[in-house]
Amino acid sequence: MSTETTGLGTPESLTDAEREAVEAELRPLADGEFVLAERYTEWQVQAPTLESDLAISNIAQDELGHARLWYDLLEDFGYTEADLIWEASPGEFRHPTLVELPFAEGDWADAIVRGYLYDAYESRHLHALEGTSYPRIADRVGKVLAEEDYHTQHARNWLSRLCDDEPGRERVQNALDRLFPYALTLFAETEHEDAIVEMRIRTESLAAMRGEWLEVVVPRLESLGLSVPASEDGEVLVDLPDQVGKDGSHTEHWPELLEEFTRTYRKLELGEPPRLLEDPNEA
Amino acid sequence: MVTMDIDTLTERAGPRQFGPKDDLPEEYRKAATRMIQFHANSEIMGAYLERPFIRQAPSLDRKLAFSAKVQDEIGHGQLLYRAAESLGIKTREQMLDELANGEGKFLNCFHYPMTEWWETPMIGFFVDGAAMRRQATLKKTSWEPYAHAMDKICFEEGFHIKHGESILRELATGSRKEQKLVQEAFEEWWPRILQFFGPTDDQSTHHDFASAVGLKTMGNDELRQSFLNAYLPKARKYGLELPEYPRINEGENGRYEVVEDDLDWDEFWQIAKNDFEPGRQQIDSRRAAREAVAWVRESMETLGSGSNNTDTPQAAD
After folding, report:
1. Domains located in chain B, CATH noted
2. Which chain B residues are Cβ-neighbours of A103 within 8 angstroms?
3. Residue A158 contacts B where some CB pair is shorter than 8 Å
4. Cα separation of A198 and A205, whole Å?
5. What's the CATH class of domain A17-267?
6. Contacting residues of A for B68, CB less than 8 Å apart
7. How confident is the model at residue A279 (pLDDT cuts 50, 70, 90)?
8. For residue range A225-237, what is the model confidence (pLDDT) as tens digits?
9. Pairing relation of β-strands B256-258 and B248-250?
């Protein structure tokens, strides 16, 4: 009745090549959510208003929750949370460098622009995972997608209101100028890109996703009176930064951030991070 | 409508008795504002003290829980400022400005710096536990919007205390190093925690009126007794040893007598005036962060008429 779809099996049944490709897809995804959230939490108790404080906290916690879901899939392959985060070296993290950049004090425009560029990418990425051949990913995409809609809405609303007056628009423009090259790291390919697409772990190539992203992001930003160093038909006028993250290269800000958030873990010589919540497999 | 006189007010005072529809004397509205503003400020400054530990939490789950807790405290601040605003004495912006410029007062414990993870249960378990004693009684305060806010706040605080206790348990049953560090933190924080309820009632300036009109329903001494009854056994259960000073004498009927002279009241009163240097630094660094995003608030004010901002981004919940 149907043509045989060659889906991937359980974590244990994957060939080495399949497993490498799945890991290469998951690692930047998990790290990206985690590090983005880590930066977002810097706004807690520092956001412009109590309401925006609550909203950014919600988003940070959503992203942390997503990171947890993706890390859990990496744990299928025998890694522990300690291996993946708490005892990992800076170069083992594969998040795009966009998410590791620090915020200048008071630069709410950066948080909003970063969130907008990232969320626009993430929702495309998740859609490209909806038809994944790997069942463990397929099981979790829906939950994550549902929450991303709110994030996108949040970023769009804030972008419009910040761009509503000249001083605000100027700050948004500055953030955009600084962040845009780093946003391109979201689409940086790894050596596993061809395998990921061929095995249909992700149903769309990063190159195609980048094209769609530009089609959406460029006109919206331009409609707000911003100038974007790219066109909606795919032309990009800036280079990728030297550090893209997905290949293990990072900016000087990353080891510093890693050092800060693993401080307690190291000082207490824990060896194992405390678990409180139900394992996502049981939930 | 005629403004209610103090005698009538005192006579009618009871749990959740008064609300925005009542025309209440200024003395009541001012006393209630002072009390709720202090409470709201404390939520904000408590969150400010705890925010570094979102970053320093040693696992994903702890990080999530800490972020959620700090968010809850901001939510409590928001609810309480609203309850205070409804008294018609001050606007929320006024109260937030006062907190930023050092006029706004808040709990003594939040004037001390907290730098290490193993100190967090001192706030998250003991101080929150002490706060819970007081807050539970405020469900019966006479200003209805305040009592209403306490329903939600107490519900959420219950989870915070459980989280604080879970961190304490982890440290107290952990390595020898963890046990030693948590004991040191306890000795450092314990005297401040005992001062949480302030000096004995007869020294508290605002107490009499607040009690007479039903804003406060229980005195400081009684609250401290109830806290000690519940939390001394818990401290012992986790192997924490009480420092020799301040002395706490156990009376015959199970009452605890804290030797008040063993506590540093000069420091307490300095804190009460926002003159304690570490607390001052907390206030000032928070003000700097608040001023750094003043441009966003100004940008929002220039939008439309300001009152029809229906597209204001809101929290998802």
Report:
1. 11-301 (1.20.1260.10)
2. none
3. yes
4. 9
5. mainly alpha
6. 57, 61
7. confident
8. 999 999 999 899 9
9. antiparallel
